[in-house]
Every structure is written in structure tokens, then in C-alpha cells.
Amino acid sequence: MASAPTVRVDTIVLIHGLWMTPRSWEHWVDRYAARGFKVLAPAWPGMEGEVEALRADPTPIAGQTITGIVAHYAAIIREQPRPPIIMGHSFGGLVTQLLVSRGLGAAGVAAHPAPVKGVLKLPPSTLRSGFSILRSPANRRRAVPFTADDFAYAFGNTMSREDSDAAWERYAVPAAGHVFFEAAFANLDPNSAAKADTHRDDRAPLLITTGSEDHVVPPTLARSAAQLYRPSRALTAYHEFPGRSHFVGGEPGWEEEADYALDWAVEAANTMSPTVVGEAPRR
């Protein structure tokens, strides 16, 4: 179990991913707050409404961009009295990497993250998970519906269909097509907003995780992302959870991932983070 917050690290910023809202973090928020941490789970800019409202009117989703999302969270993080732990899931994990590469945060956890620029091959299951978006270039300007079938493959593949459908009903919203296209074709864009400084030595420690049964970010994709950071002297760690899917917020046993992420981040921040200990980290 994670320790109580220290005077060095006492705040956690949680960043949701594509197809989700801050509601997807509801269990993690409660668990971390019970340990005494200040927990912030802001929505992507303009997506502050509830799931039901965003389904009824997905206009705020369609206008999302990676640049706008990163700037939004960077401003929130800079407002905090001390550098927080930054945790992001899926596309929120991509955003986490971009924020950490800008020197923000005391530690970063990219949980089952969408890849930053530099990961050259997307596995078939990743492409299938996003096929509802990728199948039409016109979706770049749309909020693309995420059906119960889409959810069952991308998030609910380790659950019964009944439980998957219930989770879809509670958490899922349409996806921002522009954001997905930006990440999927990042390697073709010399000025891609998904480019992280993977060589930076004086950044916060970064943990990249995934699950062995994750269809969206399978282990081959997450490991490739972690390997991009090999030139950096800063701490980068990778961890794979056996039997886990992409649904970190509510899949049975989610507590294991939540506790591992917090334990790792608190330890790494207090011992290896330049924003906390005042010196460049070492492997």
C-alpha cells in the first residue's frame, strides 16, 4: 500500500484518455484521497460536462487537439504549490509524457499510454481498437461514437459482456478524431504535437505500464515507447501487469495498478526527481 504523502510530494494530477472523462478515475481519486493526497482529475478543456451530456452533445469533444490538451494541463500543474505526481491513462499517458518532457511534475506515470512520436509500428489490435475513427479521413473533424461493441473489444475484453456493457454505459463518450489522427500519424509530421523530448536528462522519473491483455496498448507497443527513453540519464521504468486489459479505471483488481503506480511515483519523486531533490536524476 502507498505511504501517506510527504512534505515533498502531496498532490496527484490525473489525466483521462480518449473515449473517457474524469469519471473514469473515480475509484483512483477516492483511493488516493483516503491516503491523504490532494487529488485533481480535471477534464480535457471544454469537456467538463458529465458523460451523459457529452454523449447528447459531443461538440466540445470534436474540437480537441493535443496542443490544447497539453497546454491546459501544464497550466494546472504550474498553479500547484509543489510539483505534483502526474498520472495519465491511454492518451492521457501520452499527455503525461509530453508534460514530463517539458520539465513538469515530480514524477510521471503513463498508464497504458498512447505512443509519442518515434514508435514506428502500431500493432494490429491497436489499429482495430481505433478503426471506428481511422476508417474515414472525415473523422479527423468529428467526435466519433464509441459503441458498446467498440468498448467490449478495446476496454472490456477481460470482462463479461454484461459487465463491459455496464462500464460502457457509465464511462464511455465519443472520441476526438483529430487527437487520434494526430497521434496515429505523428511520424509523418515533422512538427508533430506528439513529439516528446526523450533524450532529456533533467526531467522527472517516468513509469510506463501496460497489461498483458491490453488490446489498445499491448506490451509490444508499451515496451517500444519505453525504449525511446534509453538515451536519457533520467529514470525510466516499465511494468507489465499480467491478465490486465486497457480498462485501468474499473476492471476488477484495479487496486493493484493504482497502488503500484502510487508507490512507485512517491518513491521515485522523493529520491530521483530534480524538481524535488534539486539535482539531476541518475539511473
UniProtKB/TrEMBL annotation:
Membrane-spanning ranges: none
A GO term, aspect molecular function: hydrolase activity
Keywords: Hydrolase
Ranges of residues in domain AB hydrolase-1: 12-250
Superkingdom classification of source: Bacteria
Keyword Metal-binding: no
One Pfam family per UniProt: Abhydrolase_6
Protein name listed in UniProt: Alpha/beta fold hydrolase
Organism of derivation: Micromonospora coerulea
Organism placement in taxonomy: Bacteria, Bacillati, Actinomycetota, Actinomycetes, Micromonosporales
